Amino acid sequence: MKGETVLVVEDEEDIRELISYNLKREGFEVVALNTGEAGLNAALESPPSLAMLDIMLPGLSGLEVCKKLKSNELTKHVPVILVSAKGDETDVIVGLELGADDYISKPFSPRILVARAKAVIRRGTLNQSDDDSQLLIHQLSMHPGRFEAVIAGKALSLTASEFKILHYLARHPGWVFTRAQIVDAVRGDDYPVTERSIDVQIVGIRKKLGDFDNYIETVRGIGYRFREKGPVKPEGPLK
Ligand code: CA
What we know:
This protein is of the alpha/beta class. It folds into 2 domains: 5-126, 3-Layer(aba) Sandwich (Rossmann fold); 135-226, Orthogonal Bundle (Arc Repressor Mutant, subunit A). It is built from 8 helices and 12 strands. A 5-stranded parallel β-sheet has the order 2-1-3-4-5, sandwiched between helices. A hairpin with a 2-residue loop joins strand 6 and strand 7 (140-143). Helix 2 runs parallel beside helix 3 (62-70) and helix 7 (179-186) packs across helix 8. The site of calcium ion has 5 residues, from loops.
């Protein structure tokens, strides 16, 4: 991770130092600041490879910094990881909907922190692919142009909405999406999609995935994500 700069904004000194130390040890350059305002200014001056923002900051909160970064041309492509206090699900949901790429909850292990940072930076460069090309992940293959989905060699018969939802999740393995984000992604169908109906659609998709139903993981209190890593089977359901 040479040459990658991580902006860390955290008002608690101990945590700021813990994060900085672990990222530096992995070769990241770290700019560590203690207020949202300072973090925002630093990002606008020199956009980092990643911004790691504590949500609860005095003054400008991590969510407000995230919103400003994601709405500015200069910084909207900077991946954001939010650092939340335990149980702060509402803030995490708001943050994801503002465009944050991932979140970690306190207390976290340094290894998880570093792994998430690397993954988010990697995704930033991987996920530029266009919508219509073939997608291959684990045992799933999807081709939106042909409206084809195949799992372990077997064709899946999905409705248009199911296809869109599965494709949306599978294009971003490991990313957590809220129901509202999924609604936005499938909008354009000729019937109204509600957040509640997303749950119903997910049940339907899992049923059709059969043995591979644990590709779609429920993230309690937040939403859904497509499983990032194998082995996917054999293993108990992750619901
Ligand atoms: Ca804080």
